[in-house]
Amino acid sequence: MNAFELLKPQPGLRVLITGAASGIGAGIAQAFLQAGAQVFICDVDGSAIDEFTAGHVGLHGCVADVGDPHQVDEVIERTRQALGGLDVLVNNAGISGPTGSIEELDPAQWERTVTTNLNSQFYFLRRAVPLLKETSERASIVTMSSVAGRLGYAFRTPYAATKWALVGLTKSLAIELGPSNIRVNAILPGVVQGERMDRVIAARAAALGITFEAMRDDYLRKISLRRMVTIDDIAAMTLFLTSPAAGNITGQAISVDGNVEYL
């Protein structure tokens, strides 16, 4: 098999994507569907799940709070029933968390951020890994971290703490699961165009007492390419990391960010 053949999409992959009724997760789901994969998604937004799955053949989904281990167990079982097994887990679900100085943060918001961004990944991994070992010969796990998983992020400490933790989780699992031929990599998106990033910029601008426009310009000045990345950029990297072309790539934290220099 030559290099070009390695890059061809793998039809028939069985893929589970968390937090995928909109945003980055939905973009990744669409990319896999276009490559001929079978895809199961979950999300906390039931109406978004219904709307998304209704318009795509080969797409299955259910409502779930990823912070609830019992609901996660149900997602894994429904995935097994719908797809007959699992080849790829994309642990994408996450929230932005609160913005504010450390002494002002609400402990409940801190706990919610940790539960949604970090604990949920453990809940899925503990149930998905046995399925990957049992039913897949091309198993791969993709963890969605963030550029805030390699850089400090003032006033966004709960978010940054979870995203750094996910890099450690990824590198440790790559060692643990390598002998089972399961590859584990993390993607670190930078400033991604869209409504979610607009909300983050607005919240940080308010915390710093500046305008939205000034805050947005400040973000762009910190990026070597002076532009945001797109959801398609993240989806393309996910497809690559789960393709034969990435067969010897594991334990890596790969930034897709235009080179964010600092936050």
Automatic annotation (TrEMBL):
Protein name as catalogued: 3-ketoacyl-ACP reductase
The entry's keywords: Oxidoreductase
CDD domains: SDR_c (cd05233)
InterPro entries, sorted: NAD(P)-bd_dom_sf, Sc_DH/Rdtase_CS, SDR_fam
Key word Oxidoreductase present: yes
GO MF annotations, alphabetized: oxidoreductase activity
Pfam families reported in the protein's UniProt record: adh_short_C2
Family statement drawn from the similarity comment of this UniProt entry: Belongs to the short-chain dehydrogenases/reductases (SDR) family.
